[in-house]
Design brief:
Blueprint lengths: L1 H14 L6 H25 L5 H26 L2 E5 L9 H14 L8 H15 L6 H22 L5 E6 L5 E22 H4 L4 H4 L20 E18 L4 H26 L4 H27 L11 E6 L4 H4 L7 E5 L2 E2 L3 H9 L4 E7 L5 E7 L10 E3 L8 E4 L4 H6 L8 E4 L1
Parallel strand pairs: 1-3, 11-12
Antiparallel strand pairs: 2-3, 3-4, 5-6, 5-10, 6-7, 6-8, 8-9
Helix pairs in contact: 1-3, 2-3, 3-6, 4-5, 5-6, 5-10, 6-9, 6-10, 9-10
């Protein structure tokens, strides 16, 4: 326990270096840009949006907490990113710099490619095949595995927050409801660069903190050097993002499913990385698995949403509820997204316009008959004799929406290079 506390102190010490790290400030700008775009869509759909600074501050706080957890895992495992055991090995951030360059270039194709699984896989293969740049491939792949493990935790706990409801047009021309989840978290991660102790005069972390005998769990390629190794901690600013659509289920259900799949992917990648530290052949396997399996997960999720039964679709009678405002009258009556409002004060509802016209009279008492998604019939009452009732605080799925979005997401990199432009009749969301 005492060792863990010392490591946490070392992590916080490295976090302080973020203020002078240009990549961290670039990440913050990316976070702001993403949430500003989300807010614009949110305002068009709901008439208002959550304030931008709340979203950015929330992502920063959650990202710092996740960075602490990830850094603790990385340091306890002894994961090393960069190899400076050879003379003239380069600067301490050389490898990470190359990964960032590749990641930024890939993001120009699609923002979701701003991910270490793609850029890291490319850099790892370049290092294995050409010997440049000099990176510790097993360590790099293990780092990516830990990052995505942390990401799976973030998706499970925070992925559905600030989800934006949308009207979507399917290929058959039918309007359905759905949610866009577009989260991004800045993550400061503390990892190691390893160099020959007698060349640097540095001190191994094992010399500062009493580490267990098995440490490091992920053995470095130069671990057998007679010259001794120094493990130099450095903070690596990274960005984790989650962009997806919930069409066949609620945002919460979608996030849980995505998180479990990503966690499984992460564990497999970490296992491959540990084996790769002993068998070079598995380094190639890990470098290929990282981007390929990540892309397969995304494509599977896209296919699942496109071919599955829509969750938010209108029935022959009633209005399907897509969104319920916080502290709204509908929420107080027990109405949740997915429910179908059948009638209000005994009047059967056939359209959202009909509901709006009824509420325009501002009644003081209403009773609503609605059906839960599972089929259970419910009747609820609400009265407000002082202010009267003018709005339930809901968004229902229209039969024919004037404002709708066509989804442009999930295409493979090859498809996007072949088909550079995507055109549609209305608006487009790139995921």
């Amino acid at each position: 326990m005492f060792t863990v506390l010392k490591i946490m102190g070392l992590i916080f010490e490295q976090f302080s270096n973020l203020l002078t790290d240009e990549f961290f400030w670039i990440i913050l700008l990316v976070v702001i840009a993403v949430y500003r775009k989300n807010s614009d869509i949110e305002a068009k759909m709901l008439g208002s949006s959550y304030e931008l600074h709340y979203k950015v501050a929330g992502s920063l706080f959650v990202g710092m907490a996740a960075g602490l957890i990830g850094s603790l895992i990385v340091m306890l495992m002894g994961i090393c990113i960069e190899d400076y055991t050879r003379s003239g090995g380069g600067s301490l951030i050389e490898g990470i710099t190359y990964i960032w360059v590749v990641a930024i270039l890939l993001s120009l194709i699609n923002p979701r490619y701003l991910c270490f699984s793609y850029a890291g896989g490319i850099i790892a293969l370049m290092s294995l095949v050409f010997g440049f740049p000099s990176v510790n491939v097993p360590g790099l792949m293990a780092l990516i595995g830990v990052l995505h493990l942390v990401e799976s935790l973030l998706i499970w706990m925070d992925g559905s927050s600030y989800s934006v409801p949308l009207f979507l047009r399917r290929k058959d021309g039918k309007t359905i409801g759905g949610y866009m989840m577009n989260k991004i978290w800045p993550i400061p991660l503390v990892a190691f660069a390893v160099i020959l102790g007698n060349e640097t005069g540095g001190v191994s972390i094992g010399g500062v903190i009493d580490m267990p005998g098995w440490w490091p769990f992920l053995k470095h390629t130069a671990a057998g050097s007679s010259q001794g190794l120094a493990y130099l901690p450095l903070v690596v600013p990274v960005v984790l993002g989650y962009g997806d659509m919930a069409v066949t289920r609620t945002p919460q259900q979608k996030c849980r499913s995505s998180a479990l799949r990503l966690a499984s992917y992460s564990l497999v990648l970490i296992i491959l990385s540990v084996i790769a530290s002993k068998l070079r052949l598995f380094a190639f396997a890990a470098a290929i698995f990282a981007p390929a399996a990540h892309e397969m997960l995304i494509q599977y999720g896209v296919k699942e949403e496109e071919e599955g039964k829509p969750y938010f679709t209108n029935k022959e009678t009633g209005l399907r509820v897509l969104y319920v405002e916080k502290d709204s009258i509908a929420g107080k009556m027990g109405i949740v997204p997915g429910d179908t409002i059948l009638s209000i004060n005994g009047m059967a509802l056939l359209s959202g316009k009909q509901l709006a016209e009824f509420l325009a009279a501002r009644p003081v008492f209403i009773w609503v008959e609605f059906e839960k998604y599972e089929g259970k019939a419910v009747t609820a009452e609400y009265s407000d004799y002082r202010n009267r009732i003018g709005d339930l605080g809901i968004l229902v799925v229209p039969h024919n929406a004037e404002l709708y979005y066509e989804i442009n997401r999930g295409s493979s990199l090859a498809k996007r290079l072949i088909k550079r432009f995507y055109s549609n009749r209305n608006r487009d969301i790139g995921m």
